[in-house]
Structure formats: structure tokens, C-alpha cells
Amino acid sequence: MKFFELTSEPLDVGAIARRIVPEECGATVTLDGYVRKFTKGRETDYLVYEAYEPMALKEMEKLIDKALDKYEIAAVGIVHRLGKLDIGETSVVISVSSPHRRAAFESCEWLIKELKRTVPIWKKEVYADGEVWVEGDVSGEQ
């Protein structure tokens, strides 16, 4: 089971996570990625996300398929928000269900790193004194 979406609407983390609760699973791990106030010591006013949507959706599906092959998991959902996001708003939700929690944790971490690295979604950080487009961070620490 899988789903992947791009939206300009606010994300409901709980509703997204509950879309994948297969009866053979005992764990769902959900990442709620949201806009933080400070990045590398610089105060952020807001973020803007843009995507090449047809390619982003294809890459999200490929990423999910790789995770389903690589880890002992049963279901994956990824929803990424586009547009202007204020501090505290959720930008991405990744939910992974598995029979056992370890695979869900490991695959969720792998998915966010690979999403940032491979999916054509771009982030602009806007500060009081300027703005910058941020490339994906392979370490996942952005």
C-alpha cells in the first residue's frame, strides 16, 4: 500500500498517518517535518516550497517503491506541501507501517534523506535581511 501527494493545503499529520494502518502491522512511524524559526543561526520569517510537480510525483513513487523493496515494511505515505509556509506549519509528512517498529524507523529516516536528495522540490528560506534557495541536504540535517 502506498500514496504520495503534493498539495498547497495545510497538512493534518494524524489524518495522513492513519491512512496506513494495515492489520498485519504493529507500528507506524510518522515524520512531521515543519518550519523552524532558526536555521544555522539565522532567523527565518517563512519558507516557500516549489516543485516540478509531474516529475516530483514520479520520483516520490520511485522512492516509495525502493523503500518497499529495501525494508520489511507494508505501507508508505508521503505528502509534501507547496507554497508559502509560516513558522510551525508542516511541510512534509512521511508515514511508514511495518510489522515491527525497527524497519519503520529506519525506512522513514531513509525516505526523508532520499526525498531531499532526489525529488525536485525546492525550498526558499526568507529572512528579514534576504532570501536563499536551499539545495537538498544529503545528510538530512537541513
Percent strand equals 35-45%
Shape-level CATH architecture: Alpha-Beta Complex
Task: Note the gap between the termini.
Answer: 29 Å
Global shape:
elongated
Q: Number of helix segments?
A: 3
Please bin the fraction of helical residues: 25-40%
Tally of structural domains:
1
Average pLDDT taken over every residue:
93
In total, how many beta strands? 9
CA radius of gyration is 15 Å
| The CATH fourth-level homologous superfamily | Molybdopterin biosynthesis MoaE subunit
CATH topology: Aldehyde Oxidoreductase, domain 3
Structural class: alpha+beta
Contiguous low-pLDDT stretches (5 residues minimum) are none
Helix and strand sequence: EHEEEHEEEHEE
For the record, the CATH class is Alpha Beta
Strand count, sense and closure of the main sheet?
5 strands, antiparallel
Question: Explain this structure to me?
Answer:
By secondary structure, the protein is α+β, with helices and mostly antiparallel strands. The protein has one domain (2-130): Aldehyde Oxidoreductase, domain 3, CATH 3.90.1170.40. It is built from 3 helices and 9 strands; from the N terminus they run E-H-E-E-E-H-E-E-E-H-E-E. It has helices spanning 13-17, 53-70, 101-118, and strands spanning 2-7, 27-34, 38-39, 42-51, 75-81, 83-86, 90-98, 121-127, 130-134. Strands 3, 4, 6, 8 and 9 form a 5-stranded antiparallel sheet that branches. The protein has a 4-stranded mixed sheet with strand order 1-5-7-2. A hairpin with a 2-residue loop joins strand 3 and strand 4. The longest helix has 18 residues, at 53-70. The two termini are 29 Å apart.
